[in-house]
Amino acid sequence: MTATALLPGLLRSTRRRSVSPTLVLAWVVVAVVILWAIAPGLFTHYSATSGVPQDRLLPPDAQHWFGTDQLGRDQYSRVVHGSIHSLSGAVVAVAVGFVAGSLLGLLAGSLGGLVDIVIGRVVDVLLSVPGLLLSLTVIILLGFGTVHAAIAVGLTSIASFTRLTRSEVVGVRRSDYVEAAFGSGGRRWSVLFRHVLPNSLGPVLALVALQIGTAIIAISTLGFLGYGAPPPTPEWGLLIADGRNYVATSWWLTTYPGIVVVVVVLAANRIGQSLGRRGRQGGSR
Amino acid sequence: MPRYLLGRIGQAVLVLWVAYTVTFVLLQALPGDAVLIKFQGGDINLTPDQLEQVRQTYGADESVLQQYFQSLGRLVTGNLGYSVQHGVPVTKLLAANLPSTVALTALGFVLAVVIAVAVAFLSSLSPFAWLRRLLQAVPALFISVPTFWLGITLIQIFSFKLRLVPVIGGTAAQSLVLPVITLAVPISAPLAQVLIRSIDAVSLQPFVPVLRAKGAGPNWILWRHVGKNALLPALTIAGVLFGELIAGAVVTETVFGRTGIGVLTQDAVNNQDVAVLQAIVLLSALVYVVVNLIVDLLHPLLDPRLSQKVVLAA
Predict the structure, then answer these.
(1) Residue B309 has pLDDT above 80, yes or no
(2) ipTM of this complex prediction, to 2 decimal places
(3) Given an 8 Å threshold on Cβ–Cβ distance, is B144 in contact with A247?
(4) Domain B90-305 belongs to what topology?
(5) CB-based contact (8 Å) between B287 and chain A?
(6) Which alpha helices (H) appear in chain B, and where do they start and end?
(7) Given an 8 Å threshold on Cβ–Cβ distance, is A136 in contact with B145?
(8) Cβ separation A128–B243 shorter than 8 A
(9) Domain named ABC transmembrane type-1: which ranges (chain B) (predicted)?
(10) CA torsion angle for A268, A274, A277, A278 (degrees, to 10)?
């Protein structure tokens, strides 16, 4: 299902039943955070990297919504400017998982046989190692950094994308229109990419939204451990790691960035859940 | 049954072997070199000849294929190689660090199960729709909280604000309280979700109205009949969550400054101590495989219908 194919269904569903308020809120949160990432200047006029020394460690007030840190930098501004790092990291990570996973799933589901078995075993191994340790293995290999952390996180989501795409492909492949496409002389690969893949993608899109939330947490965890973006970057995990040194006196340094992460992840998960529900209702399979 | 058992064990061993091979290939492709990192920086400046000697003692001078088969052979006999950074066998490092991590993860898992069961059962027993909806939202919230931030926030509230748990110098039990909660909360979320869903599914089955018609109360039905039947899917996901426990322990130990596998992992990543990281990855894969094997073997015991199928298939 492509975006244009989703649109009529979306319109129809909003007309049929009342829209859930939490879902609207989730979309608003996501929209605001995306705006933070695109145009941080619209939301704050403070610099994210240079501070005012005499304003250091101020508690939250009308001037500094989230307080200031040990160098007198406005914490709210750092969170706003940091959103680009967390969001782009999560998008890269999910893109890696989505592309690699759905290709592997398509191959396993459509070719079957030995290919299916080998891919199935690789997925077993990917699932048997906890995500964080898998990421650390990739990071020890590639080195520290924002992009490396994103790739490392993406690798951990390949297994679930592969499994889901494979099961969808197996289901779609047996349907009448695919048989008809083969019957009317379609070649294997053209049928796969023009009919099987687009029709298998619906539930996979729901997984994309869910994985974005998971990836934001994973990337901030790597940032917190010091394997992501280098220090002056206001990446969310790094912000919380910095604030940890002042945890006894300046609670705002860790609390506010953390709440932002929780709210964004909640919103992404809520959207993923709604997409998944519609996928299940829409498909008659 | 024996044939099924052998097949499952063979599958488990295969997963471990592939995991080992993949980590070996990945980590051998490293551009850096742990020997160089340890022996060339700082004041120890070794000549190239001396470096070569060090390499020989670690077996780093042989061809990759030779190294692979040698270390695979050693692995079978329980030798996981040497940590270049610490200069001791990896098994020794693991043995020294495992007990505290095992204590943390075991308690964390128990608490996660308690939280999940409490949330799921309370939400299905709750007489009010709003309370039910609130409780059903709890797993969604728990799953969205980063472990490291939860730990820091708990320290903030219970150690610094309320002064209930000392930051340093508490008893062993006191020092475990906050880490165990930190570890348990994110793990409990998927467990609670699955429990809620399977309790809902089981409640729709025809035997529930029959029990109600016979006069059983909702408490009795939930604990004696529905709960028992809802356990099976939860057991399956519990096996998967064991791996997440180890990952959670890495973060939790870092936040609370506890020694254990977590600190060992961070140390290994910082110093490119490949042998140590590989051992930890293999250990977690082993735990995952063994736990899932046990879960699979337990299924027929909990659900007699499954054992009949196995007998028919064998």
Answers:
(1) no
(2) 0.81
(3) no
(4) MetI-like fold (1.10.3720)
(5) no
(6) 2-28, 34-40, 48-58, 64-76, 90-125, 129-143, 147-154, 172-203, 207-213, 218-220, 227-256, 261-270, 274-302, 304-313
(7) no
(8) yes
(9) 98-299
(10) -120
Task: List, as ranges, residues 45-104 from B with C-beta within 8 Å of A.
Answer: none
Give the domain extent around A264.
Answer: 66-284
Interface of B with A in 259-278 (CB under 8 A): 265-266, 268-269, 272, 274, 277
pLDDT tens digits along A194-246 = 877 777 777 788 888 888 888 998 988 888 888 877 777 788 888 888 888 88
Weakest mean pLDDT among A20-29, A62-71, B59-68, B199-208: B59-68
How far does B155 lie from chain A, in Å, by closest CA?
A: 8
- pLDDT tens-digit map of B247-264: 888 889 888 888 888 888
In a domain, A38, yes or no: no
pLDDT digits (tens, 9 = 90+) for A22-64: 888 888 888 888 888 887 777 777 777 777 777 777 777 777 7
Which amino acid belongs to residue A52?
V
Of the candidates A131, A207, A193, the one whose C-alpha atom is nearest the C-alpha of residue A163 is: A207
Domains of chain A: total: 1
Every domain range in chain B assigned CATH 1.10.3720.10:
90-305
CB B156 within 8 A of CB A251: yes
DSSP state of A52: -
Bridge partners (DSSP) listed for residue A74: A68
* Min Cα separation B27/chain A (Å): 6
Q: How far is CA A152 from CA A115, A186, B22, B253, B276, in A?
A: 25, 38, 15, 21, 19
Three-state DSSP state, A68 = strand
